[in-house]
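Hi V.,

You were right to ask for the full record rather than a summary. Here it is.
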Amino acid sequence: MGCPIAGALEYVGDWWTLLIMRDALDGFTRFDEFERNLGIAPTMLTRRLRTLVESGLLERRRYSQSPPRYEYVITDKGRDLSPVLIALYAWGRKHAGADAPAVVLTDRDTGEEIVPGLVDQHSGRPLSAVDLAFLAGPGADHPMRERLDPELRAERRRRATDKESE
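Predicted structure:
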């Protein structure tokens, strides 16, 4: 599709994958640990782990010769998924969480709770306060350029606004 969001979802488009990556980022590496933490069927877990290894998010390493046993170690590419999971955590705390959360994000050194937020690195402004727009990049094909055309987007928004006011 040419969109970075669609490309990312090719890697992590189902919730089991994100939960496995959450646990891998937390230091879990063994099949039985993932299975116990997630309550996932072994066949489903095997498929998901294979996909994560093939996509380069995890590396499969043997830790026992007899019997042969493997662990799944997070790669740099997998570690780069951390901000995405933290953003999902923050959204979930705000919109899908309970009054008394079962999980709290903390600074490992100080133990203080972290309240994550995404900011523009240039201005320091929270992204929620910035009027964002996706624009076609240099590699965009014609359908992508048409979809992201600012004038066509403005027209779509006007239509949506007109329908709301009816």
